[in-house]
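CHAIN AND CONFORMATION:
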Amino acid sequence: MVDYFNAILAEDIDGKAVASLRQITLADLPDEDVMVDVSFSTLNYKDGLAVSGMGRICRTLPLICGIDLAGVVAESRDSRYQPGDQVLVNGYGMSETVNGGYTQRQRIKPEWIVRVPESMSLEETMAVGTAGYTSMLCIQALQDAGVEPNHGPVLVTGAVGGVGSIAISLLAKLGYEVHASTGRVETEGEFLRKLGASVLIPRQNLSRDCKPLERETWAGVIDTVGDKTLATAVAQTKYGGTVAACGLAGGAELHSSVMPFILRGVTLRGIDSVMANQAKRQRAWDALADILDRDLLKTIYEVVPMTCVPELAPKIVNGEVRGRVVVDVNA
């Protein structure tokens, strides 16, 4: 008897990648060494693009969507992992070129697996997900560059989104003064202040044509937006400051000047969460387990059944989703 289970599968329909909830079998999974019974995934901006078809994310079809997963090892041909181990995976081209986490079962390369920190539940790891893991990579980039809390405020753009909201809470917990930029100051101001933002900045203050150099304001920046917002943030960064760029929700262009870099010694640091090595990943997840305020985390995310993902996908692309969305693949 064939065992069917649910997945969100992107298929080629008239030359376009169209994603829908489908029933698949083990024969539809890749032949990798570790089988995971998936418990949770997440909904990120990239997932929204993939599932809605609003962006060309899935480059190999058919393909299971979802850039995150967390679950329990069911079978393993690799001695490092045993049935019952709690694991998570994000990045490595999942939902782009390899099958992802919107499925009740998945086979995974053991080299991609991160062990779930003992103090975290599977649900919490996906409440953090790629967004929170990326936030931690950004914060560690600032720390490694010597940006300390007493150096001045840190700007977080796209503050209401997944990366931004978790970045604010982590920075505040670490003692940084956090300034948050969003297009929803009036409606989301209370939410952002609760996370730890001390100053709110309307999006239009940054999303504009800027001068090559503007008033030195930021000791560090975590930018999820790109385009004019990133250019303005760079122009306002203090001498010796660092800008961690991890997103392009506002556009992929960067029309800037070399002046902040050669006159102020500003560092623009690109953050890649997809192919980061295992040492960086484990360092980030271990730090998250230590720093996260679990009670505050609960206010940042909601849990939805996988059946809701197609409906929510265009909303996250259009900036209509606050914080994090955890996907229960078994609901």
Summary: The mean pLDDT is 95. DSSP finds nine helices and 16 strands in the chain.
